[in-house]
Amino acid sequence: MSTRHPPPGRQLPIVAVTPFPRAAAGALRDAQLRANLGRATRTIREKRAAVVAEVPDWEQLRDRAARVKDDVLDRLPELVDRFTRAATAAGATVHHATDAAAANAVVTDLVRAQGVDRVVKVKSMATQEIGLNEALAAAGVTAVETDLAELIVQLADDTPSHILVPAIHYNRGQIRELFARRMPGFHADSDDPAVLAGAARDYLRRTFLAARVAICGANFAVAETGSLVVVESEGNGRMCLTLPDTLIAVVGVEKLLPRFVDLGDFLRLLPRSSTGERMNPYTSIFTGVTPGDGPRRLHVVLLDNGRRRVAADPVGRAALRCIRCSACLNVCPVYERVGGHAYGSVYPGPIGAILSPQLTGQDAGHNATLPYASTLCGACYDVCPVKIDIPAILVHLRQTGPKPAAERAAMAWLGWTMRDRRRWRAALRAARSGGRPLRVLGRRHGGRLRRAPWPLSAWTTHRDAPLPAEESFRDWWHRTHDS
Amino acid sequence: MRIALFVTCLNDALFPRVGIATVTVLERLGHTVTFPAGQSCCGQLHANTGYPGPARALEQSTEAAFAGHDVVVSPSGSCVAHLRAHTRLPVYELSELLVDVLAVTDVGARFPYRVTYHPTCHGLRMLRLGDRPLRLLGAVRDLELLGLPEPEQCCGFGGTFALKNAAVSGAMLADKCAHAVATGADYLAAADSSCLAHIGGGLARRPGAPRPVHYAEILAATGAGAVG
Ligand code: SF4
């Protein structure tokens, strides 16, 4: 189990402080982590595949959902405006935050105005993206995560490693030890999951009943009605959304849907894709405030934080369709082996590799290494419920991002050589004669090279390298077919 | 039928036997194969590594080299996928040409070995080759087909990924090799020489592992001789 602290400086938690290859190589050395991840992702993968197979119109659902989201991105300003008017009419106060600092300032002021030093939180990616808990802590306010896995991660001073299963890298022995150390009032000495969950429930109950302010995100925001939708499994969300007097929702602008009826398709797509359930246990839909029922004050902070800029990129914008189901993480062969921390962002896996560098710009930290954290195998695209062509966006980001000078020179030379028939033929012949001494060396290993000098040693560390053939295909063709 | 062969740069330089096997199979079925000499690389390497300029130039030179050809075949799933996405060439992966266009599954091959098949990612998810290669292999005389565990898992090659993220690539390769060894097959077949170079390089370091082979080489075989 790794304990990580926020990076020095006030960098957003979507900026990688370590190049992906180095962070990944470190994670690979943790055999326990790899075993935990392999088991967990395989289980979710199989559950998802089974429940998706039950839906005969799955492909049509994906197409429709992608179209609705693209339409939202086309008309963001209009829908933001419509949502603002509808929510305000229903009694909510809507704030517009252009970046993380602005959103954190709005929320901190709102909390301070209530005179509390403790708030409860429903798991929300948007608040993690802007580092809200850290900003609140700096203002003397403790934010208690109430989603069980988020609570575990928070008690450990750790960062989540999966969008949906943030504590995927912990086993129950580790969790019991953690509760004993950090959870007030914890006595149990068993690591039975039911006992651990029961202890967390008691602790959270007391916390809910004492809370006057809650902070949440939203899975969807309906422009037509000004409604917010929170989809969850544990019921902690329902408690946070209904018990406190003041509710503050931080919502990325891309969560908007035009009409209430659009929700239907998304509520079918999301649970099957994320937890592999037909329907999630708790879906809360709320609109403004209702006297005598639920919070008396509802604040909605609509967050941009780079989204409008991403929406202007004709290829990259599709990343904003994401509904954070995490299906792409669970099928990703790279994620399965290195886990979420290697991506250096609250958004890990394939979606993180295309979202973090776009939200921050590729010059932020080592985010430019993220688009290369993929073999382009396409498994993520196949499962994405909103049909984001993640491999295409990875390639797009590689094509628009920074590159090492030596690589640029080598690729330019190679392209120049291959483009011309005579140059290419000469290069093949040169490779063949250059390969002759290597072939002698490689004879012991079935005509392959076992050890090569840098930079090809990156290849031969893990596998033998093939050698140029004695006769190229085109020379063979010339000899056998052209005369 | 006149069929133009796009052999791919990798096969041209490193694995000419895959091109030769493709020619052998098609000629045995009575077709005329041509080899437009202006071809080299489809541009996939440059495009996927982040160099759209050289990629575009190579896509265009490939398109020019095959101008006027009605049917182009290539024994590489990833190159076919790239050309299909970036040019207007009528290009088929070998199993698509055989099964869909020429309507044959039995190409008259004999290969008395146990073979397991790895469906490469481009073949599986971009071209949707489905069971075409397996149907072709299934019709080969004396060949015993063995199932590969977790076949749809990527082998970890990914072009320059194998160099840029060598450690992760190596971990994925280790799992793929372990699955291949577990089958007890004599050969591991696939539809892409690039993935095979990577997997084969890993298998070569594991005693008793299957040998890598392009399925075209199996389709070209008619005797008892080993290939690869
Ligand atoms: S990119 Fe697609 S699959 Fe991945 S989390 Fe977002 S919606 Fe889910």
TrEMBL record, chain A:
UniProt entry keywords in alphabetical sequence: 4Fe-4S, Electron transport, Iron, Iron-sulfur, Metal-binding, Repeat, Transport
Ranges where the LUD domain occurs: 81-303
Lactate utilization protein B C-terminal domain ranges (all copies): 399-480
Gene3D superfamilies in alphabetical order: Alpha-helical ferredoxin, NagB/RpiA/CoA transferase-like
Domain 4Fe-4S ferredoxin-type span(s) in chain numbering: 319-388
InterPro entries on file: 4Fe4S_Fe-S-bd, 4Fe4S_Fe_S_CS, FTHF_cligase-like_sf, Helical_ferredxn, LUD_dom, LutB/LldF, LutB_C, NagB/RpiA_transferase-like
Coiled coil region boundaries: none
Name under which the protein is recorded: Lactate utilization protein
From TrEMBL, chain B:
InterPro entries assigned: Cys_rich_dom
Chain ranges of the Cysteine-rich domain: 3-84, 115-199
Pfam family, one: CCG
PANTHER family named in the record: LACTATE UTILIZATION PROTEIN A (PTHR30296:SF0), UNCHARACTERIZED PROTEIN YKGE (PTHR30296)
Protein name, UniProt field: (Fe-S)-binding protein
Native source species: Micromonospora antibiotica
